[in-house]
Amino acid sequence: MSDPVIQEIKSRLDIVPFVQQYVRLAKAGVNWKGLCPFHSEKTPSFIVSPTRQTWHCFGCSRGGDIFKFLMETENLEFRDALKQLAERAGVELKREDPRLRTERERMYAISEVAAGFFQLQLAKNPAVFDYLKRRGLTDETITGFRIGYAPDSWDSLWNFLRAKEFSADEFVASGLGIRSEKRADSYYDRFRNRVMFPIADASGKIIAFSGRIFERGKKTDEPKYVNSPQTMIYDKSRALFAFDKAKDAIRKKNRVVVVEGQMDVVMSHQAGVTETVAVSGTALTARHLEQLRRLTDTLVASFDADEAGETATKRSLDLAAELDLNRKVAVIPKGKDPADAVLENPEVWVKAVDESVSIMDFFLGRAIKKYSLKTPEGKKDFSRYLLPEVSKIGNQIEKAHWVSKMAELLGVKEDAVWAELKRYERVIDQPSSFSVESQGAPKLKTHKLEERILGGYLLYPEARELLVGHDRLLLFAISPHGEIFEALAGAAALADDVTAMLARVPEEWRDYADRLIFEVEALFQDVKDARAEIAACIREVERERVKERLIVLAESISEAEKASDLARLQTLLQEFKQVAEILSKI
Question: What angle, rounded to 10 degrees, do the helices at 507-524 and 481-488 form?
Answer without folding.
Answer: 100
